[in-house]
């Protein structure tokens, strides 16, 4: 049987071949298998897009039309305030525009056993959550007479987060060079070593200390352990995949972030492409709509084929168009025309928009082929 | 110490603001202070604000003292016998007007029954919470508010007797209904407003059922017999206005039958209705293109007056014709003078509009729909008594919209018609549904308004009992004949050479961006090119410099203004809009060079 499949390796994609092997009945005869394979090849070739098929336009319509039906902008997690995820049309626009700053960055952290079965899941989640000095401080007091800052700590919050005075002291040391750090029972007093300290400097150091990182993973502002399909995982608000993957308890093969650029940096452009597909498809499925995945794949391919993630904007992939008129017909026409005039750009007139503008057949479908005749001499 | 403001200006202080406010109000009720003054005591700041300004929205309420309304039975009797009028009640201090700020200090009861000693006022009627149009919807309190709104809005567009002196008026774009009736189911506001003086609809028999699918999606079906007897028939009036304008140099427009020499002279046939004064005669039957007022204007530019031409030949034709797609009868001709002293001629055209497929009708409950089919009376479903309905309304319009008032009016109208009286459907105080049903039963009909019906074509009995009754239906002013539009050839814009836009200019129907995309998605490239060639032009292009060249038709010779005539010049087909953008580039100092290549 294996020999027959080998024959088809160039003719069919790997996925179809493996599927065929898996679902082929064991008792099928050699000739039957051959027949089936021939039929599959035929069907496969028929399902390919024809030359001149306007796939980009069809993709745009296929994603754009369901976009008009999308509702409900944000989805809230029950129980946790300030934790919501952008979904629906705003999220799709965010992805396709290739925004660097997401509205709601978030991760889904899968865990290794035994944590994936729920062991210490809450403690683990809390250890991932970022705690800053500001979070555990009840009050910052500036003493004008002594020229010192007193940081009053909230013991209860510290206990809940598992932070001791030593951790705080160690963290503060790095940022208080040139200052005396005095530890009291539930407060720290910071005083300048130099004699000509002024109030302005004190205020600056106070502001500098507020975001000092004490514990957890930078950027993770909220954590939420959830159970999904008999397995516990942690959903976070805020994203820092690089640091999360360094943890031993994390299942690095499945943990993801919704930030495409982070994935592109960590795993490369192919992973980013897959991530775009997953995210867009996820949103559309979430809304109960149905879009063929090949449309989304095409969009992801276009966004990634230059090696870096580029959004569908006038700065992203639209700026790569070869035609001056096509660029100008998108956004900021004057800018494109002036820049092209300065360098004397030539418009090859080989895509759709510019040919519509000059009323010539667009090189798509019936407008693509042209006739060649031999002239007798 | 509390501050006292008059029209937001500080005028004094008071130790006892509450007492002061009470005293002011007492004075106002007695009449020693104008009834237009309102006082407001602000609990939060203990300040007093009195207002006498114009522009405050105020409403009348009945004053209550010690839990008793000051308006007594005695007053009501005297009102009925016309001894007392509204004005007197206000002067007597029984009714007062409160504004939005004084309202804050009042405790207004909705009905006299719920009065307690704490109340300060009682509403005259629950109906006052509605506006004029909303209170004209019968049984409005049975509806969702959105439907009440829709019902009110639709009534404003109804065709009726909008004024009774319409024959001597020259209103633009108006309709008058031929056999307008006052509604069988009325509200108090119909009496108060004098609705029977300018009604806007007709009481017709409505059956709630489907008919061959031609009343799907809010469509309605009309009975041809009813239309023949005048249902929904209306007249449309539109005046045309011509003015003898004066121009610089003592030149003036002239209303007359244009001379044949005049520039732009149409044909003799077009002017056939004009009398000696150049104006059409009344009762002439006209159709599109016929001239109503013959007029000529002086030439546009005085310089074009050269010595050799005769005076009349230089004048321009500027007659007023009937617009594209219009027809009618000349109804009224008015010759007058306007404020600048110019002679003004107005000619009103009238056209009878018989209901047809596409005309819009509505009940008073936001149940609008357009005519989907007109059925001969012989084919209409009929009841056991042989009655055929005037209109068939689809039951699918009811569940999602929940217009209960529509259904109650149907029963109410039926009862009213059978008992020969009008039914009171005033919002919040209408006749009870049970009473209406009982009365219907006593008239020998099923109390729920249903009747046995028979298929109009086969005569078979319909299995379902059909809900049928009388309703007040309105014809809305949106009629197909005023909206229908299509074009194959027609006028183009001067600048772009593309078709004009809009029905009034006989414009084209735009094939827009998204429609273009569907052509592309189908790969129908050459079809798309053909659809977009409305402004196609062939222009000569110089192959040496790539700019537009010139073709001289007299000498049959092409040349390039830059490269003289020793260069290759080819005709290139492109859209005129693209030629325009090339010109704009040039005006910006950008050199748009076309490099030509053979297509094949």
- Average per-residue pLDDT of chain B, rounded, comes to 92
In the CATH hierarchy, what is the class of the largest domain in chain B? Mainly Beta
Q: What is the count of β-strands of chain A? A: 12
Quote the distance from N terminus to C terminus of chain A: 58 Å
Please state the CA-atom Rg of chain B, rounded to the nearest Å: 35 Å
Tell me the strand order in the biggest sheet of chain B.
Answer: 12-26-13-24-23-29
The biggest beta sheet of chain A reads: 4 strands, antiparallel
Derived structural class of chain B = alpha+beta
Number of helices of chain A: 17
Shape of chain A: flat
The rounded Rg of chain A comes to 30 Å
The class by helix and strand makeup of chain A works out as alpha+beta
Alpha-carbon distance between the termini of chain B? Answer: 98 Å
Poorly predicted segments of chain B: none
Report the helical percentage of chain B: 10-25%
Can you tell me the CATH topology of the largest domain in chain B?
Dna-directed Rna Polymerase Ii 140kd Polypeptide, Chain: B, Domain 6
Strand content of chain A: 5-15%
What is the subunit organization of this protein? heterodimer
Q: Total helix count of chain B?
A: 12
Main β-sheet description of chain B: 6 strands, mixed, barrel
- Pair of chains with the largest interface and how many residues each contributes: A-B, 28 and 30 residues
